[in-house]
Design brief:
hydrolase; 31% helix; HotDog_dom_sf; PAAI_dom; single chain; 4 helices; Thiol Ester Dehydrase, Chain A; 6-stranded antiparallel beta sheet; 147 residues; alpha+beta
């Protein structure tokens, strides 16, 4: 057996997770951190993030502001894009959000998954649920590689 055959197959997963944790740490001083996003899980083509809703995330009706939900979808989908295009610059070119239910203070979670990838664009979908598993919003996004 050569050296590569003796490697632990989980080492790549640990390396990817360590890289994602470094990325999440580096993002703390950005809008990601300002919003309060936390990485829950990530694997090729999908990821999950969470947000502990605070009073500043609410609108005057005391429910989570739609812009917070849109930002959560954009952040989760963007993270998948970063994993799919390491070292490349990408931008959101389209974000479509369907608001289904409202919620207040508590944890919300967003799952994003890659559904199509071409040479220049990536298309994803995402969903946001509350701590009871109720679907709050779902959306789709298109991201473009910038040269």
């Amino acid at each position: 057996m050569n050296e590569k055959e003796q490697e632990d197959p989980r080492s790549n997963e640990r390396d990817e997770l360590a890289q994602l944790n470094r990325l999440a740490e580096a993002a703390k001083p950005t809008f990601w951190g300002y919003l309060g996003c936390e990485l829950v899980h990530a694997e090729p083509g999908k990821c999950g993030i969470s947000l502990q809703v605070r009073p500043e995330h609410l609108n005057l009706a005391h429910i989570v502001h739609g812009g917070v939900l849109a930002s959560l979808l954009d952040n989760a989908m963007g993270l998948v894009v970063i994993m799919e295009c390491p070292g490349e610059k990408t931008v959101t070119t389209q974000l479509n959000v369907h608001y289904l239910q409202s919620t207040g203070i508590g944890e919300i979670r967003c799952e994003a998954v890659l559904i199509h990838k071409s040479r220049r664009t990536l298309t994803l979908q995402g969903s946001i649920v509350d701590n009871k598993g109720e679907l709050l919003a779902w959306g789709s996004g298109t991201f473009r590689r910038v040269t």
